[in-house]
Amino acid sequence: MLAPTATKPVxxxxxxxxxxxxxxxxxxxxxxxxxxxxxxxxxxxxGNYPGVTVERKMGTTYSQHGQPIQIxxxxxAYSLAARSPDEAVTRDVLLGRRPDTPQPDRIIxxxxxxxxxxxxxxxxxxLDLGRPVIVVLNMMDLVAQSRLKIHATRxxxxxxxxxxxxxxxNGKGLIELRLAISRADLPMARHDWDVPALIAPAVADxxxxxxxxxxxPPLIARAEALLLLTDQDSVRVAGSTPLSPRTQEILHGxxxxxxxxxxxxxxDLVNSRYEVIGRLCAEVVQRAGxxxxxxxxxxxxxxxxxxxxxxxxxxxxxxxxxxxxxxxxYPMDWLDVHVSMLADWLRGAMPPGxxxxxxxxxxxxxxxxxxxxxxxxxxxxxxxxLLESSGYMARAAFIMDRVMSRVGLNGRSFIPLLSxxxxxxxxxxxxxxxxxxxxxxxxxxxAPLMSCSARLPVxxxxxxALFPSGRVPVLxxxxxxxxxxxxxxxxxxxxxxxxKRTLLQGETPVMIMELPPYRWPSLKGLALQMxxxxxxxxxxxxxxxxGVSIVLWFLTAYPKMPAGTPPxxxxxxxxxxxxxxxxxxxxxxxxxxxxxxxxxxxxFVAREVFVSAxxxxxGGVTDTKGNILPLRDALQHATWPDGRALFTPLVCLNLxxxxxxxxxxxxxxxxxxxxTNSWGWAIFQQVYLSVTAWVVACAVYQIGRALGF
Amino acid sequence: MATPIKLSExxxxxxxxxxEFPKSGPAFLRLREMGLIAGTPVKLVRCAPLGDPLEIxxxxxxxxxxxxxxxxxxxEST
Lengths: 709, 78
Fold this sequence. Notes:
The complex is a heterodimer of chains A (709) and B (78). Among the domains of chain A are: 1-291, Rossmann fold, CATH 3.40.50.300; 536-706, no CATH class. Helices cover 58% and strands 7% of the residues of chain A. Chain A contains 30 helices and ten strands. In chain A, helix 3 links the parallel strand 5 (106-112) and strand 6. The longest helix of chain A has 35 residues, at 523-557. The radius of gyration of chain B is 11 Å and the shape is globular. Chain B has a single domain, classed as SH3 type barrels. A six-stranded antiparallel beta sheet of chain B has the order 1-6-2-3-4-5. At the A-B interface, helix 3, helix 10, helix 11, helix 16 and strand 10 of A face helix 1 and strand 5 of B.
C-alpha cells in the first residue's frame, strides 16, 4: 500500500559540518551495550533524561575518515508500544517527541541472531519510521552452536538495507559496521507490508491528523499512527510532547467503533507484522535438524531445579552478601585509617583554630563518609554486572518471584533488598534492574528498613548496655540481633504491601521476562560499568553527603565555649545540644532524655555516629579510683535529674527498635534523591520512617512501662 | 481435534499450539508482541521451584509468565 522506497534516500544531507546522529536500538540482552562500548570506548556521556529515571547514554565514534559521529544508545526495548519507562524513552526519542534529545537521523538496529524472529519485531516497527536503518546481526558466534544457519546476505537483499554479521564481544564485524555508518548515502528499506484492510482507514486518518496537528513528516506520521493503535495503555513519561486533542479524538473514535464491533485491531496488527517476519525468516534462517537441549537448557535444569536450584541460589546470594559485607570491609577499613591519618597529619601541620577544625572534622570527615562507600558500590556492581551479563539475574528473579508476589512486587526486587542488609546505598542503586517504575519506587522506599551494617555498632552497644556484668549470654545476643533483623525485614515487607495497595497502586504485576541463554560476561564491560557507577555516585550523591556532613559538624561545634571546657559541656551548649533539649518533650514518651536526643541528632548523618556521640555526652565517667570507665559501664551511671537510671533494659531495647526503623542516614537520602530524581520521594521516605520509628518506640516504651519493666 | 486447554494446565515438557488469546489487557498485548500469537508452537519447559511463574519456549527463546496470565491462554496440545 505505501512504498517508502519511493522516498529519496537522504544522501547529500550529511556533510563534514553536520555528521549524522545515530541511534542504537535493540531488544534487551542482544549485546547492545557491548556494541556501544566497542564503538565508543570511553568516549561516553552518561546522564539522565530530564524528569525520568532512565539513563541517557551518548557516545562519539569516528567514521573511516576520522569524522566524529554521535551515537545515542537508547534503552533496550522489545517493542515501541512501551511497557516500561525505558521503552517509553526509546519510543519518544525515535518519534522526535522529546525536545531534550536530538531526533536520530539514522538508526542502527542490533538483533540477536540466535533469536531472529522476535528481535525482528522491533526492527519491523522501526522500518516504519522511514529512516535509513543498518541491521547488525549480533551473536553470530552462537548461531553455529545453536545449530542454526543465518543467510545474512539473503536478509540484506530482502530488506534492501545493510545487514552486518557481528560478534560484538570480540570485535568481529566492527570494521564493516564502521564502513556502513560512514556511508554518505544509505538506502531506504524495502518495507512494503500490508496493514490489515480493516485498520488501514484509521491509519490514514491518524496519519493525516499527525501531519497537520503535530507537524510530523509523512513517514514518521504513518509510523506513529500505526503505533498509536497498539499503544493504548502504554507508558507515558515526563519530558515527552503530548498528542494534540484532535489526534486523540480521532484515535478514541476508531477505538470505540472497533470495540463496538468486537475488532481485535491491536492483535491484528501484531499478527500481520509476524506474518511478514515469518516470511523473512523462512528464507533466512535454517535449522539443522531437531535441536536437543542447548547448553543453557542443561545449566537451567540444575539452576532452576526445585532442589539444586535453591542450593545454587543460596550459594550465589551468600557470595554476594559476603562480598558486600566482608570483602569490602578491608578496603573500607583501609580508607578509614588513611582518612583519619590525613586528618591527624593536618592537625599536626596546622595551628589550632576554626579553619583546622573545619578541615579535619568537617571536610575530611565528610570526604571519608563518601569514599568509604566506594568499595561496597564497586563490589556490588561487580556482582550485579556478573549476574546480569551471565544471565543468572533473570533466573534469580524467576526463583524468587513467588515470594515477592506475596507483597505485590516481582522477583526483580529481591537482590536490591538483599544487598540492603549490607548497605542501603548499593541496594538502592541496584533497583535499576526493576523495570516497573512503581515497583522500583516501592523497593527504594522500603530498602532502608533492612538492617544495614551501620546499625551493628548501635545494636552491639545497646546489647552490651543491657547486660552490665559484661557477660552477655551468646544465645541472648544472637537472639536479640536476629530479632532486630527480623523486625526490619517484616517492616520492609509490610510497608511494601501497604504502598502497593495505597500510594503506588499498580496494575496486577506481571512477570513476562525473557530468560536469556547463559553467556560468559565480558570483563571489560564489567569494569566499565563499575567505574561508571562509582563516578556517578561520587558526583551526584557524594557532593550532597559532603555538604550536609559539614553542616552537621558545624551544628555540634558551634557556638564555641571558652577553651578548656569539657566536651560534654561544649556539646550541651552547641546547636545540636540545644536541638536535643528542644526535642526532649518529643523524646520523653520514648524514654529518651536530651542527651540521647543529641546522639540521635548527630547520628542523623550516619547511624554509627550514635556510638561516638554517646561517647562524648555520656563518656568520661570515672570510678572511685579515678579510672575512666568503659562506655558500657558509663551508660549504667547515666540518670535522669531525679536519680532514676536512664538506660533501663526497656530503654536499651527501645533504642535498638528505634534504630531499626528510623531513617538515620543522609547518604541514603542523597542516593534516593538521585535515583528517584525527586526530593519529594526522598523527603517522604525520611518522614514516613521517622514517624514509624517514633510511634513504634513510643508504643513499646509505654506498654513496657505499663507492664512494669 | 483436541479440545483447547489452558497453557497453565500443560504438563512439563509438553508441546502445544496457541489457539485463543484474550483481546484486551496490556499483559496480553505484550505477550503477543513477544511472539505468542494464535498458531504459534509453544513448549512448557518448567515451573519455578515454588510453582509459579512458568517458563515456556516460544520461537526459539525462553520466556516466563505467571500462572494468572497462562490461565487465559488457550492451547491445543500436540
